[in-house]
Design goal:
- This protein has about 270 residues and is of the alpha+beta class.
- The protein has 2 domains: about 110 residues, 2,3-Dihydroxybiphenyl 1,2-Dioxygenase, domain 1 (Roll); about 120 residues, Roll (2,3-Dihydroxybiphenyl 1,2-Dioxygenase, domain 1).
- It has 4 helices and 16 strands.
- The protein has an 8-stranded mixed β-sheet with strand order 2-3-4-1-5-8-7-6, covered by helices on one side. Strands 10-11-12-9-13-16-15-14 form an 8-stranded mixed β-sheet.
- The termini are far apart.
- The mean pLDDT is about 90.
- This is VOC domain-containing protein.
């Protein structure tokens, strides 16, 4: 598999109190099957769609840890990138550490407080499948410090920050890696705003989107499985999406990229 370009989201995993319950939830919702859990890595369990890896589930070693999806951004030099994170006003939460022969990771946060991971690939490059139903589709960071955060991702990863008119929400931008042409088709992620309409206690965070065949059906299945809706389905030029919460409290989004509209509508 070809390596992911610098800064491109290459992997996601979710930390859960109960991995077996997570397997039942995501297996039913997204059609995933699962590999053998690795006890030496916190019961780390890879998820597959049609035999290709698409994400992973991991057990919470500590109840104080958040139940949440994590996004990994690719880097060819995790030590150097972690240094850039510090230099540009971010925080290194966990210094670079090798994960067997799979690769080397670090956990960091941007200047607005949104946590993400860096991944320098070894034998595990990242997604074998993405952009199709049942797999990863998109990631964006939500922040209250847009100017500082935009400058951070430009400096650390070389992203070009462009307005995203297709998002249907004012102030949203998209990221395009260095060397790629401008335009939504070349973007790899984006940045939204935590506006006054959100709870004051909501922290800055990354939101992971998974592609589905039908957004409304996925929302209904989420509720049937014990999850709930955080943001009702809306149709934009990018597709019809909804933010939901799984049966254990982890937030994510589902998006049907084939159902599109000219402006954001319910």
């Amino acid at each position: 598999m070809a390596a992911f370009a610098e800064g491109v989201p290459c992997w996601v995993d979710v930390t859960l109190p109960d991995v077996e319950a997570g397997k039942r939830f995501y297996g039913e919702l997204l059609g995933w099957t699962f590999g053998t859990s690795a006890p030496e890595y916190g019961m780390y369990t890879q998820a597959f769609r049609a035999g290709k890896n698409v994400a992973a589930l991991v057990g919470k070693p500590d109840g104080r840890m958040p139940t949440a999806w994590s996004v990994y951004l690719a880097t060819g030099d995790v030590i150097g990138t972690a240094r850039k994170v510090r230099d540009e006003g971010g925080t290194v939460i966990t210094d670079p550490v090798r994960v067997g022969d799979f690769g080397t990771m670090a956990v960091v946060a941007d200047p607005g407080g949104a946590v993400f991971s860096l991944w320098q690939a070894g034998s595990h490059a990242g997604f074998e499948e993405q952009g199709v139903p049942g797999s990863y589709g998109w990631a964006e960071v939500y922040t209250r410090a847009p100017e500082r955060v935009d400058a951070f991702y430009e400096a650390v990863f070389g992203f070009r920050v462009e307005p995203d008119e297709g998002a249907g929400v004012p102030g949203v931008v998209r990221w395009t890696p260095r060397g790629r042409p401008a335009g939504a088709e070349h973007a790899v992620g984006g940045r939204g705003l935590i506006s006054a309409g959100y709870p004051t206690e909501m922290p800055a965070h990354f939101l992971t989107y998974f592609v589905v065949d039908d957004c409304d059906e996925a929302v209904a299945i989420t509720q049937q499985l014990g999850g709930r809706i955080a943001i009702d389905p809306v149709t934009t030029p990018h597709g019809r999406s909804s933010v939901v919460i799984d049966s254990q409290g982890a937030s994510f989004a589902v998006i049907d990229t084939r159902t599109r509209g000219d402006a954001a509508t319910a």
